[in-house]
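[User] Once you have settled down, look closely at the record that follows, and write a paragraph about the fold.
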Amino acid sequence: MQYPQWFVEKPIKEYQSLLDLHTHYILPERDHKGRRVFLVKTGNIDLSRMKPTDMAILDEIVYEAVAYEPETLKNGTLTITDMSGYSYRNLSWLMPDNLNIAARKSNCNAVLEHHEHHIINSSMLVNTAFSLMSPFMNKTIKDHVFFHYDDYEVLHKHVNPEILPEEYRGTGPALDYDAVYERFIYNQEDIFQQLLQEGYVAEEKKQNV
């Protein structure tokens, strides 16, 4: 495998310090379409402790934790990326090599056929970042990216507010990282152990990542 540092390559417990930065979350309840919903908070990225490869690994961890649930396979997934706190310093990650590898990895994660990406609390800086990433993304991914700035009413047309926490104008439970990580990640070490044993052979053949 090329670029192994972009993939999970250690037992899941060894990524606890990364998970504890609370950049990634899985909402406990599915949305009104039966989709599993991820939340990514870029304001929690600690550039002094993290690298682009760490974000790719965290993406993979939450993705793999739910990817083989029958209802998730049927209905797909949705990611809400909260860009609050995104700064010019974050642009240092958007080097062509990083963008190319990250995009190729995303393209080969095709277990889930249906995925939407909703970006909230965006800004002109975020638009600049997206314009840098866009050439590396395939058309299917780009066609399913939606920007909402701080318009939560529009977001609620895609994700029912009953499952969202109050900070996103929802009526759902507050974020509980410990409970969610225990339920979806640490209690499923067998999934990640299998991933370590089998790797990404099929995807490598298709994408040569």
Remarks:
- The two ends are 7 Å apart (CA to CA).
- The longest strand covers residues 36-41.
- Residues 201-209 have pLDDT under 50 and may be disordered.
